[in-house]
From TrEMBL:
Its EC number is 2.1.1.228. One of its GO terms (cellular component) is cytosol. The gene is trmD. InterPro entries: Alpha/beta_knot_MTases (IPR029028), tRNA_m1G_MeTrfase_C_sf (IPR023148), tRNA_m1G_MeTrfase_TrmD (IPR002649), tRNA_m1G_MTases_N (IPR029026), tRNA_MeTrfase_TRMD/TRM10 (IPR016009). It is found in: Cytoplasm. It is an enzyme of class 2 (transferase). Belongs to the RNA methyltransferase TrmD family. This is tRNA (guanine-N(1)-)-methyltransferase. S-adenosyl-L-methionine binds at residues 111, 135-140. PANTHER family: TRNA (GUANINE-N(1)-)-METHYLTRANSFERASE.
Length: 230
């Protein structure tokens, strides 16, 4: 999978060189390109924003640099998916992350200010699939944090990136439930003991306990994830 990121803060994505995704890049499982939007400006001040038509507070990102950036990064390619983080997007979920992990080329357009001129998404849709996605129902200052979270959630689902694929199965949201609590040594810590069933060696009993714990935790913390009959 190739991931391109366009942003006015390219240094923000330096962290993608370390940890899991850093190794995936070195193993050739993920290709990452981070691009400074200002390389597609042509004025002395490298201007990327201007005042909004119709008035209002803040500034809007100009369409011209974005258009040239997408021209340069998409070329004649037709199967890229352009992802625009925005508070007004569809919710980013584990299911969507799983879908996006199957893509061959993702381009994240990370805006700032009050947003990107709407014609950028409109014109991009004439040459690629475009998805406006929101990380969640709160407001960030730009698209970078959202893109970072999405790239991590998607990247770890790309086959081969996570060493043991089994570890992806029992995670929160993978089966629609929150994950069961986890324990490791010591057996007793500050008077708190690891549940006996986890030390029983009875794999069926462990699986049943973990399932029940996941259901109970989901009912308590995220009842909205449960259909009425669960
Ligand atoms: N994804 C996501 C997401 C989220 N969940 N919260 N905020 C964002 C997000 C994504 C992209 C931009 C761009 Cl471009 C500019 N801003 C700042 C802003 C602030 C208030 C209203 N409009 C825009 C962005 C916020």
């Amino acid at each position: 999978m190739r991931v391109d990121i366009v942003t006015i803060f390219p240094e923000f994505f330096g962290v993608l060189d370390v940890s899991l995704l850093g190794r995936a890049r070195r193993d050739g499982l993920l290709e990452l390109g981070v691009h400074d939007l200002r390389q597609w400006t042509h004025d002395r001040h490298r201007t990327v924003d201007d005042t909004p038509y119709g008035g209002g507070a803040g500034m809007v990102m100009k369409p011209e640099p974005w258009g040239e950036a997408l021209d340069a990064l998409l070329g004649d390619e037709t199967d890229a998916l352009v992802i625009l983080p925005t508070p007004a997007g569809v919710p980013f979920t584990q299911a969507l992350a799983r879908e996006l992990a199957a893509e061959s080329h993702l381009l994240f357009a990370c805006g700032r200010y009050e947003g990107i001129d709407a014609r950028v998404a409109e014109h991009a849709a004439t040459r690629a699939r475009v998805l406006e996605v929101s990380l969640g129902d709160y407001v960030l200052n730009g698209g970078e944090v959202a893109a970072m979270a999405m790239i991590e959630a998607i990247g770890r689902l790309v086959p081969g990136v996570v060493g043991n694929p089994e570890s992806l199965v029992e995670e929160s949201h993978e089966d629609g439930l929150l994950e069961h609590p986890s324990y490791t040594k010591p057996q007793v810590w500050r008077g708190l003991e690891v549940p006996e069933v986890l030390r029983s060696g009875n794999h069926a009993a462990v699986a049943a306990w973990r399932r029940e714990q996941a259901l109970e935790r989901t009912r308590r913390v995220r009842p909205d994830l449960l259909p009425d009959d669960r």
